[in-house]
From TrEMBL:
This is histidine kinase. InterPro entries: HAMP_dom, HATPase_C_sf, HATPase_dom, His_kinase_dom, HisK_dim/P_dom, HisK_dim/P_sf, Sig_transdc_His_kin-like_C. Signal peptide: none annotated. It comes from the Bacteria. The keyword Kinase applies. It is a multi-pass membrane protein.
């Protein structure tokens, strides 16, 4: 149902409700006023009651000839009906018995515990109230019809205006959604409004920006992956074509070169898949309590040969021998391995890399953390590169894009693994002096 139709029906229902309320108020007001008239002139009512009861007793406990009797107390009353055994025995006035029974004031007549009849009466004031009520009830249908017509026309005009104003932002939003679906078309939304329509429009614009950013990221990822795959594939293709054209067998050196490129391709594919699962939240963690110090010692054992090849001094400094953390061992080792190998790549021959492990309480985060600091005295990272080092395929040193260099995914995978453990990673660096990577993992209270 359209908004215009709903508003029209609502307005019509409101008018009918107002008329019914007026009718009910008039009805209730009549009975209240009628009863107030009795309270204000109670003596006259009671005198009439007693005179009728006296008549009944004086005629041998009967209403014989009451219809022709005259009652002195009846003078203030315009309408009187005496009813006994469901019959009207006495009547004064012009109203019918049924109407007086319905709207007159009732006086019960009794002889001891015996009920001998009822009087239905109206004094002059009550009669005028009754006449007003009857007149109002007679006019009410005509007033209602006229009100409905006048109000209906006015309401229709107002509804048309309101519906136009109310549906205008909705039409713009629908048009904006259509533009979002088409992609690339100009998007016009009433985001300037301060109401719910403005909030919806802002949310749609934010969603569109997110979709656009996701699409840009997807295209960039495809471009980066294609670029990374192209170099090793070209090397492999070139070596095989050369061997095929010359008919000479591949030497051991050529075979080793091709194997390196195949391994590089395999590593790239695995890292892309791993990062995609992490970004999509599809990697389920199975944490267990581990000794962080033991994990770091294991890491140094696996990477020491890389440091020794460049004569880099690699050391571990732990605040205590046991720092328990709840982690998935393989994921944390992968993150720490990527960070440490990154430090080895950027540290010159003869440099040093120091790893510090400690427990700290961070007041701004209201929690205790296990903190690992990986410090090197390598080339450092420029301020321009620093915000992007956790981006996929980003390399501060573009020379590492050559075969044998990294894929540019290591730090991105490390960051996602740490975030998956509810931790965080930060980096500080000065060009020419070195870098410090700080990893914090939450400790259980």
């Amino acid at each position: 149902m359209k908004i215009k139709t709903r508003l029209t029906l609502s307005m019509g229902g409101l008018i009918v409700l107002i008329m019914l309320v007026l009718l009910a108020v008039t009805h209730v007001q009549f009975y209240i006023t009628r009863d107030l008239a009795y309270l204000e002139e109670k003596d006259a009512f009671e005198a009439l009651r007693m005179e009728f009861e006296q008549y009944y007793r004086s005629h041998g406990n009967s209403w014989e000839d009451v219809e022709s009797a005259s009652f002195e107390s009846a003078a203030p009353f315009v309408e009187i009906v005496l009813s006994a055994e469901e019959q009207a025995l006495y009547q004064q006035g012009s109203l019918s018995v049924d109407k007086l029974r319905g709207d007159g004031y009732m006086l019960a007549l009794g002889q001891g515990d015996q009920r001998i009849g009822r009087l239905y009466v109206m004094n002059e004031r009550q009669s005028k109230i009754y006449e007003f009520k009857t007149m109002w009830y007679g006019m009410l249908p005509n007033i209602g019809i006229a009100s409905l017509l006048i109000t209906g026309i006015a309401a229709l005009l107002i509804i048309l205006l309101l519906s136009w104003r109310l549906t205008s932002p909705i039409r713009k939003i629908i048009s904006g959604i259509g533009a979002i679906k088409q992609g690339g078309a100009p998007i016009v939304l009433p985001a300037h409004r301060k109401d719910e329509f403005g909030a919806i429009s802002k949310a749609l614009l934010e969603m569109n920006d997110s979709l656009a950013e996701a699409e840009r990221t997807r295209k960039q990822l495809m471009s980066d992956v294609a670029h990374e795959l192209k170099t090793p594939l070209m090397i492999i293709q070139g070596e095989l074509e050369l061997a095929h054209e010359t008919g000479s067998p591949l030497t051991a050196v050529k075979q080793a070169s091709i194997l390196d490129e195949v391994l590089r391709l395999s590593r790239l594919v695995h890292e892309v898949l791993d990062l995609s699962r992490l970004e999509a939240g599809m990697t389920e963690l199975h944490p267990k309590e581990e000794n962080l110090v033991a994990l770091l010692e294991d890491l140094l054992t696996k990477t020491r040969f890389m440091a020794e090849d460049k004569e880099i001094q690699l050391s571990l400094h732990a605040e205590e021998p046991m720092i328990p953390v709840s982690v998935e061992k393989s994921r944390i080792l992968q993150a720490l391995y990527n960070i440490l190998t990154n430090a080895v790549y950027y540290t010159k021959t003869g440099g040093h890399i120091r790893i510090h492990a400690e427990t700290v309480h961070l007041p701004d985060r209201q929690q205790r953390y296990a903190r690992i600091r990986v410090e090197d005295n390598g080339t450092g990272i420029s301020e321009a590169d620093l915000p992007h080092i956790f981006d996929r395929f980003y390399r501060a040193d573009h020379s590492r894009a050559r075969p044998g260099g990294g894929t540019g995914l290591g730090l991105a995978i490390a960051q996602h693994n740490i975030l998956a453990h509810q931790g965080f990673i930060e980096v500080e660096s000065v060009v020419g002096e070195g870098s410090v990577f700080t990893i914090c993992l939450p400790l259980e209270d």
